[in-house]
## 1
Amino acid sequence: MRLSVLIPTYNPDCGRLTQTLAGLKKQTLDTCNWELILIDNNSSNNFQARLDLAWHPSAKIVTENKQGLTYARLRGFNESTGDIIVMVDDDNILNNDYLEQVVSIFNQSPDLGAIGGKSLPWFETEPPAWLHEFHVNLALRDLGDNPILSVWDQKYPDAAPIGAGMGIRREALESYTEKIASGKSKISDRTSISLSSGGDNEIVLEILKLGWQVGYCPQLQLQHIIPAQRMEVAYLARLVRQTNKSWVQLLQSHGINPWRRISHLGVLPRKIKAWFIYKAWQSQPSYIKWQAACGLYEGLAGLPSD
């Protein structure tokens, strides 16, 4: 199986991106068996001039002018030629055997459409003691050392792959790429001005609904670089609020939303009540959790009327 590695990026930190590329350069899978595609999502910081991709015989940079992670990924899917696609963020450092493991897993499991593994933190500065409560929001994950397989059963699986390091069988992507290209998706994802998310989850749901399995495979491990800015309370509060709002929209669009719509008039009273329930004034984690609740209420108020 030939493999394609996609790195979507927008105004990347060149130091972190260089670490990501260094991790790829050390892969045990020979470069003749995989291609490297970096998708520049209309950056303005001229980072391309500082990159060295000469070490890879099948590396290229393409530009996607339409802003947003979803469009950058779609461009990468369309540009790639591999039977397997691995999505790598510009702050991920894959273990040396990551690509080789991906190929092996897909070869051994023909029913798997998408896989992921452990996303372990590489903190650039000392994290606050409470940060572990929000690891999932920072795309950090360790579900143990046993594999977990999931099939479609009218809900989103807890062990579904996350975007960082997700391996995808190309033929399992057909429904998703058609949906995005046709404009039928209502899910917003990261842009230069928004922390909304849902693109990873929509990929997983479309793959599951086609009848494929998805899996958590602990032998797949990467390090996710977490800079100081992403550990700040203001950033985390904004992240969880926008993530929860888009999460409601995602579940609704796939008919698996477990909550009822609320009126816009009911949002403020709920936020005030949640302020006291979470004791948002008491600690930084409490405040962040209150912001998460606010995002949920905003998402429920934005649902269409019956």
Note: The mean pLDDT is 93.
## 2
Amino acid sequence: MRPDLRIEPVPFDHPDAVALRAAQRAELTARYGTPDSEPGPAPTAADTTVFLLARDAGGDAVGCGALRALGGGVGEVKRMYVVPARRRTGVAGVVLAALEAEAGRRGWTVLKLETGTEQPDAMAFYERHGYRRIPNFGHYAASELSVCYERALVPDAMNAAAIPLPWSRLGRPARRSPGAGPAAGHAHGPRKAGPALPAGGSAELA
């Protein structure tokens, strides 16, 4: 648990959520070289099940993540992002743990996600956290730059991780080591290889 972080659900159009998504989109553009094209529909307020913010001890929003229901007990992790100054400090792991716990509360049994070939940092992060690579699914099936993952959720583990609302502090169990996480979430973003970001500019953008 990180005592300096607080996880809270907010509306999709909350100003801090909008600002983090805009920063994420800018990084995707820098990483892939195109401003718009996505291999699948971008999440909206209508189809986002929950949007979580991570706040530091001063109340600043330092990360985010969202869930979108795919049906049949399956959900998709979306819009994972951590501000550059807080990368490699475990924030991404805390956000992912919170999303997994929320999925467990909803009775979901599988989480899927999509990232991109230009984001090896994101792929390594998800693999460290128990996600396995799968064939590209849904809207990403024909995307040559998409890389997809999934993880089966274990009900007992999810129940143990769950913290009732109102949200306060949530950390990943000690067996999960913090690391350089999705600095910017899954790459449902530009799908054209472009210039790499500067060293340390992790851009796991969703």
Note: The beta strands are 6-9, 50-55, 61-71, 74-82, 110-116, 132-134, 146-152.
## 3
Amino acid sequence: MHRYAALLRGIAPSGPNMTNDKLRGVFEDLGFEHVGSVLASGNIVFTSTATDVPALERRIQRALSSELGIPGGTIIREHGELRTLLDSDPFPGLTHGRGTYLTATFLKDGATAPEQLPDQPDSRTRVVGYDPAARVFLAVIDNSDPGRTPDFMSWLDRTYGKDITTRTWLTVQRIVKKLES
């Protein structure tokens, strides 16, 4: 059995079809085991014997769309990928806060990795890098002015469209903890 985290795009906890119990129900109906949710923002952990991640992503997304009307994307990472990412400590000495908003933007499995990162996205963003094994961009954002979207986030959207989803570093840590419980 493999432990996976599904990072669902476009989940609004206030949406009547986007509650954790309904999301978990879709995963359970698909035959996955040890299904659990992390926070109320579209993070589902589960076990499966399946190893074809792109096929899992498509299967889950079809079910979410048909059963709950959720059109967003599904991005899956295996427990080992996330554990290795955490162990690499990409944000040494930093604490998540308004001025140091630590983010991880995951690419859909099979998405093309960047040939290069954008040059100096803006003064409010420090791109830590791209981890090819976990297929994730890591950035520190000064989020003290929430009315402005940093250029780096806009670049990600323009380049990868709906084939990405962003989580805070705290959420990634919580997902890994849930996978290990």
Note: Helices lie at 20-29, 53-68, 79-87, 151-160, 169-179.
